[in-house]
Amino acid sequence: ERVALMAAHGLGQYHGDVSGVSGALVCRSPSRYRLGTGYYRMLVEQEKSWRPFEVLRATDNQSLDVLPDGLLSANVTETLLSGQTRKRRAVVIEPDVHFLLKQPEARKVVERFVAEEGVWRTSFGSAFQKMLDAHCSLETLRRYPGGRLDTPAVD
Whole-angstrom Cα distance, residue 107 to residue 119? Predict the structure, then answer.
């Protein structure tokens, strides 16, 4: 279930005022706008390319007290909705990559999801329903300045 839910890491891109990282992809287009197995596919395809990524202080992350660490990056070819391609930096969280690719049980699940998206869809649906049943809903999230969602603070 944990592996299935981690597909959500592949949606969107980083925003400097929230994460300290500006404009980097989390996954490649057009899958970065569609929940699916693209995140897993990218992790596996880039497995030997991931390198440590240092977030530097920049204009758009000045408001952050602490910049993130523990990130990896790789240059990937992004396919635009128009069909054109371009090179872009993808940034991922190192502990996630370690868990998904280096832990044998998780790796088996990742490889199965890459091979059979239908298996992932079933697993994701079940795990997501369990989250909702446990009262983890969008209503419990708070908004960042500018309207983006954040996870609730833990008391």
Answer: 15
